[in-house]
């Protein structure tokens, strides 16, 4: 099964970085080194989705994120960047997924919102709801001041060893795989080791059970090749909003929400890179279950 997972991970990474390219079954099967017949079945077994559903969901969720958050982007630029051939195809796909046209979706998106939620209306149709924050925005910003030291920093390039997790529930098992590998390489335990979670999907648009998160370890040197389920990943140098604090696991969602609000309040916008967390301590070693974390947003 590990060999199958390794190949499917390779396929998923290819899909997510080539959403504007040819993503036919034959092409993706070739990337994963399967016949089309076998790849289709194995992909669904491991991900819980058909290849076609996965590709459409990724494209549509990403377009929803850009429509709602990056309102300066032209709709045409969004759908072409994501590989839709024309406005008609994009609009039809989007409406089937969210129940409304892309332009209506964009116009109904408030300046700040927590998540995009789909609900079934009484007539059986899909309704798209922009879920608001449970706390008032002012309260969240005050919480940020009290609990996070927030600043804009230039961060260096980081070379990582990574394990892919599909769904929030699989993050801890992915870290266990990573640590077992690191022990064999004598990279763990050691002083000042840094674990990092990289978010390749946004909880604003992707359900928690389908969010793609990479469980990573910071390395001194670049990992040259994939080793089993472990693959190299790079966080490129650049400017980041960094919120640092000592928090519990229950505080993570609020920390991210508050930090994105801080970004909006200070007129920054997120660039095309992935947010991540850097862990400086282990919550299991703290009497109150707290850990020191950097929450990082690329801007």
Based on the structure given, which CATH architecture of the largest domain is correct? Answer: Alpha-Beta Barrel
* Residue runs with pLDDT of under 50 for 5 or more positions: none
Total number of helices:
10
Largest sheet: 8 strands, antiparallel
Give the C-alpha Rg. Answer: 20 Å
Please state the structural category: alpha+beta
Fill in the CATH topology of the largest domain.
Multidrug-efflux Transporter 1 Regulator Bmrr, Chain A
Q: How large a portion of the residues is in β-strands, by DSSP E?
A: 15-25%
Q: Helicity level, as a percent range? A: 40-55%
**Number of self-contained structural domains:** 3
Given this structure, which CATH class of the largest domain is correct?
Alpha Beta
For the termini, the CA-CA separation is 39 Å
Q: How would you describe the overall organization of this protein?
A:
It is a single chain. This protein has helices spanning 2-17, 25-32, 36-47, 51-69, 75-81, 87-98, 102-108, 137-147, 171-184, 252-265, and strands spanning 115-120, 126-131, 149-155, 158-166, 195-199, 212-219, 231-235, 238-248, 276-279, 290-298. A hairpin with a 5-residue loop joins strand 1 and strand 2 (126-131). It starts with a helix and ends with a strand. The longest helix is centred in the first third of the chain and has 19 residues, at 51-69. The chain is of the alpha+beta class and 299 residues long. 40% of the residues lie in helices and 23% in strands. It is globular. Strands 3-8-10-9-5-6-4-7 form an eight-stranded antiparallel β-sheet. A two-stranded antiparallel ribbon has the order 1-2. The protein folds into three domains: 1-48; 61-132, no CATH class; 141-298, Multidrug-efflux Transporter 1 Regulator Bmrr, Chain A (Alpha-Beta Barrel). Residues 9-108 form the HTH araC/xylS-type domain. It holds the Pfam family HTH_18.
